[in-house]
């Protein structure tokens, strides 16, 4: 690649020039277990039905009122509480960016436990907001004292709690989260409960919101259909008090969700039982993998409430390359944060994929 003309380079923000683009690993010919995707495709009869449905869409027209049908379907599917509203994003990544844009008031900042989802910090940087990362404990639990101290010190505008967390895959203690939500509320900030992996989790914060709406009046609940089984469709949604969502929704581009996006999502929700069965099978496979991994003396494994499992090995780089040479692609997260030293993140795949992954791992340790 040739160097950018200096005159043009001067037009690009210095901090952007210093950034690295989000890297997507090449996966052709590999058992792809690096991106927490649902490994199951639609049954053939549903593929045919969806193809016919998409073929009838008016692609020459902008998205229409049908998108309101999707909002209603998602609200019903999620069991959205009374008095709440829902906004749509081109994946949850866009919602995170839009929220940073809407909340960019003087002195605004974003706070989240780390290691966590990289887009929290990236959205802050791109919007020119301060980001405060609060390290988890060595066992990847919330450090409540540190979190409360950081909230009191920085008074963050937005605090993200991933439930469960990426890449550690664990659900944090609800009592600890309640303390954090209360502390953020006392200083006038927002809390975003990011439930990207909700289809595989043992509980959802929406039950706490219904049980105690007053304590959660400053809480937004964010989900995505990516882990539901539609990673290629790019559709996220965020629920919260209607008056709050109405303000954030003002910064959303008018046609951010295409007719193909919303029709695919509506079709999938009409067949939610198919995707629920896939999620159930993934949970069965997760339990099998956890048992097999815990039996390996060279591997430290953490419990999971997501469709991924975090492990620690003696040499993550060597093990990752060994698995890659055996055509199994996982994610080496060891460089993302010091707490993740020598850690790999394994996506739960189909039974056959999981057996190939286990064999490659054992041979690569």
Task: Please describe what this structure looks like.
The chain has two domains: 6-44 and 273-364, Aspartate Aminotransferase, domain 1 (Alpha-Beta Complex); 59-270, Aspartate Aminotransferase, domain 2, CATH 3.40.640. Helices cover 43% and strands 16% of the residues. The protein has 15 helices and 13 strands. It has helices at residues 6-9, 14-17, 44-55, 66-78, 91-102, 118-127, 144-154, 174-186, 206-211, 226-230, 242-248, 259-270, 272-294, 316-325, 351-364; strands at 31-32, 84-89, 109-114, 130-135, 158-162, 190-194, 219-224, 236-241, 300-301, 308-312, 328-329, 331-332, 343-347. The longest helix has 23 residues, at 272-294. The two termini are 36 Å apart. The model has no long low-confidence stretch (mean pLDDT 95).
Q: At the fourth CATH level, what is the homologous superfamily of the largest domain?
A: Type I PLP-dependent aspartate aminotransferase-like (Major domain)
What is the CATH architecture assignment of the largest domain?
3-Layer(aba) Sandwich
Main-sheet strand order equals 2-8-7-6-5-3-4
Order of helices and strands: HHEHHEHEHEHEHEHEHEHHHEEHEEEH
Number of helical runs?
15
Q: Helix/strand-derived class?
A: alpha/beta
Please write the CATH class name of the largest domain.
Alpha Beta
């Amino acid at each position: 690649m040739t160097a950018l003309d200096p005159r043009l380079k001067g037009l690009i923000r210095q901090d952007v020039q210093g950034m690295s683009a989000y890297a997507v690993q090449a996966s052709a010919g590999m058992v792809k277990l690096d991106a927490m995707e649902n490994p199951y495709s639609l049954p053939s009869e549903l593929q045919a039905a969806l193809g016919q449905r998409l073929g009838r869409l008016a692609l020459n027209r902008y998205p229409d009122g049908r998108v309101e049908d999707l909002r209603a379907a998602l609200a019903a599917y999620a069991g959205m509480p009374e008095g709440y509203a829902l906004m749509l994003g081109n994946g949850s990544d866009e919602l995170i960016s839009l929220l940073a844009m809407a909340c960019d008031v003087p002195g605004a900042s974003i706070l989240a436990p780390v290691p966590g989802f990289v887009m929290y910090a990236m959205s802050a940087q791109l919007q020119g907001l301060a980001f405060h990362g609060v390290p988890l404990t060595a066992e990847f639990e919330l450090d409540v004292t540190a979190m409360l101290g950081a909230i009191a010190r920085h008074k963050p505008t937005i605090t993200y709690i991933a439930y469960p967390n990426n890449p550690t895959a664990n659900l944090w203690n609800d009592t600890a989260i309640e303390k954090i939500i209360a502390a953020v509320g006392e200083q006038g900030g927002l809390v975003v409960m990011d439930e990207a992996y909700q289809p595989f989790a043992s509980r959802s914060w929406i039950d706490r919101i219904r049980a105690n709406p007053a304590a959660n009046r400053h809480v937004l609940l964010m989900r995505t259909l990516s882990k539901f089984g539609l990673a290629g469709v790019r559709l996220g949604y965020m629920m919260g008090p209607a008056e709050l969502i109405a303000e954030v929704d003002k910064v959303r581009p008018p046609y951010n969700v295409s007719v193909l996006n919303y029709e695919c999502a509506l079709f999938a929700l009409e067949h939610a039982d198919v995707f629920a069965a896939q999620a159930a099978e993934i949970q069965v496979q997760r339990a099998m993998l956890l048992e097999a991994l815990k039996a390996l003396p060279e591997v430290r494994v953490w419990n999971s409430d997501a469709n991924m499992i975090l492990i620690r090995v003696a040499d993550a780089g060597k093990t990752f390359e060994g698995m890659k040479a055996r055509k199994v692609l996982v994610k080496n997260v060891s460089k993302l944060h010091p707490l993740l030293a020598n850690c790999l993140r394994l996506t739960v795949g189909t039974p056959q994929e999981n057996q190939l992954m286990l064999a490659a791992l054992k041979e690569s340790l």
